[in-house]
Amino acid sequence: MKDILIGIDAGTSVIKSIAFDLKGTQLHSASVKNEYQLVDGAGAEQSPALTWSKTCDTLRELAELIPNLKNRISAIAVTGQGDGTWLIDEHGDPVADGLLWLDARAADLADEITASSGNRRRFELTGTGVNACQQGPQLRWLKQHKPNVFAAATSSFHCKDWLYFKLTGDIATDPSEGVFSFGDYRTRQYSDEVLDVLGLAKHRSLLPEMVDGVEAHGSLNRTASQECGLLQGTPVVLGYVDVVCTALGGGLYAGSGDRGCSIIGSTGMHMRLARQAADIDLNTECTGYTMCMPVPGVYTQMQSNMSATLNIDWLLDLIDGVLSGFGVERSRSDILSSLDGWVADAAPASLLYQPYISEAGERGPFIDSNARAGFTGLCSRHGISDITRAIFEGLALASRDCYLAMGSLPDEVCVSGGATRSRQLLGMVASALESAVQTSTREEAGAAGAAMIAAVSIGHYSSMDECVAEWVEPLMDEMIAPDPELSAVYKSIYPSYVESHRSLTPVWKSLAEHRSGHLHV
Question: Which of 4, 166, 213, 486 is most buried as measured by Cβ atoms within 10 A of its Cβ?
Fold first, then answer.
């Protein structure tokens, strides 16, 4: 009996393969750590071969956990980390390690494209701003700085496209990444105008065919079946980019109201559902993403903070370092469990925190590779509780900043990621957004979203709506209402939060120039 769907979610640091039954119940999971390298000049790269090998490891592990798995699989679906550039040659071999979304080496080129006369038209077609993590600027960077690598390439993939190629031998990408990088969201096709603005008109042959996994799928080839230990010919579905799959599996498309979805993990992804193209609200700053959903005519707009819980990780590392310096040993989980209590003891909005802890700066709702984290209003009376609360509030205010860049605040927001472990942070997000927030009991929303695309692709469900009704809606928790008093505080302080990052722009630039000059002394 073919009663199992497998969703592969290839993240930057962890690759997971999750087995579901046909009604969406998670059966087993297998995961391995992936590896990437930081490269001089703000680069970040990952080995395609190692990523494929580790994906095979997870599939073989699932086969050990589930009796007769290879004969029970209805389909395999794959999603993965977004943006980045993974090039192959005419033989299907990688020409170099893949550039990741963390790679900031194309920042100057992204700024150049943004400042060009054609950028507004490009933005109106893609619905997406330009930043260094995207394939367009990265291809330009490779052409300029690694011409031999660029010249050897015949196809340009994203991470999930590479894995789909290894599984099936098919050269393809999906409508979500294909369109926001190089296309027109209204037609869901590549756009020559966009390629021209990006300076890549002569290199269109690098772009794979766009294949919608809801409507078509490939099959597991002989080589992949041997490496994964699964049956040759098993249907394989190319999912949409991981954030779309996570939003789908986590509840963005559940219900019928004005809905948003925030994935507050290492990065912060804030999405607004657009049930038709006419609902898309393009801002004047040309920032954010517009992504196709695996539903005809439906989209999500997204603004993405470069860092979300990475700010909390920084605080945990700082506390751990101080304690260790004095010979005090506390586990990271013990420190983490203390944070909610500290936050509850502190007064709201007694200082502001700009949560731009990433060395790559910020990308949503404004783009500035020089942006850095900092506290505003710090004084001698502030202690660890106030600092912790300010960091949490910085994440909540960043989410408000992102949603307002896509229009008005939504009525309700489903939240997933590390933030769901903190009741305090969830309450702050609800209050900052003046929206009810809801979490899901779904453990692996990204892999589930990919598997949902497969479930429709193979005909198990006649529509995504039918699939969502069984896979998603029963797993949604009760709504957490915003605190009216806290909402009033955050609404009052929000203009100061915005003004702080606007005012700091020249300071960040000056500091970046200082760092650059210091490095070359």
Answer: 213
